[in-house]
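Milestone M4 deliverable, item 7.
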Amino acid sequence: MARPRRNEEQILAVLKEHEAGLKTADVCRKHNISQNTFYAWKAKYSGLELSDLKKLRGLEDENRRLKSIVADLTLDNQALKAVLSKKF
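Output delivered:
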């Protein structure tokens, strides 16, 4: 049976219910998640608002793009060094 995937908005809503005073077991039962999943979400998303989460996602995407650029440039640099070392 496939597990339902939840987006960040839904995860934040679940965590807000817990912060509002519901017990962990009740929140987990209501949303059909395990307590391990709940605590993993809490560790990752605790203290974040939706706007913070969108900024974080944007920064992660930018970081991934920049790492790709650095990797490409490093390969180009190594290839040029290899060609130059063979000539001399």
